[in-house]
Amino acid sequence: MPLFEIINDGVSDVLYDNGDALRFGTGYRHNNIARVALAALDTGGGVLAWQNPESVSIIIDRIELDVTTIATGAATIDVGTTATDATTSSNNLLTGLDVHSATGVFDNITDKGASGKSKQKLAAGKWVTASKASGACAGLAGYAYIHYHIV
Description:
The protein is an all-beta fold. The protein has strands at residues 2-8, 11-17, 22-24, 31-37, 48-51, 58-69, 75-82, 94-98, 104-107, 120-122, 127-135, 141-150.
């Protein structure tokens, strides 16, 4: 028996209680959040390289960077999606993010920079990378939270 029903654009999603856990019926597209540690490497994809784990395309609707320890010297990073490989730099989510001036939480909506966008589609098996754009990333630490849903 459904606990409740959500109707969105004519598509009905029903929440069921099977005794062990709550689950949604067919058609529900939930958001996932991947947590990935940041690294202090200056190579392409050296700060972050995350591969889409789904067997289909996803839409990344937000990426948050929780910088807990700043880079020891002046440094900026670029974050983006790439179909090439885990060591390819891209800046279509965040561009030129300063990771030296202050710790804090930064995202591709408020802090996107010149080329960053608030959402990107990513094919199955392709990557999100964060790479040094300028300076050196030595000392940088924290986590990225990649919010996505399946297409």
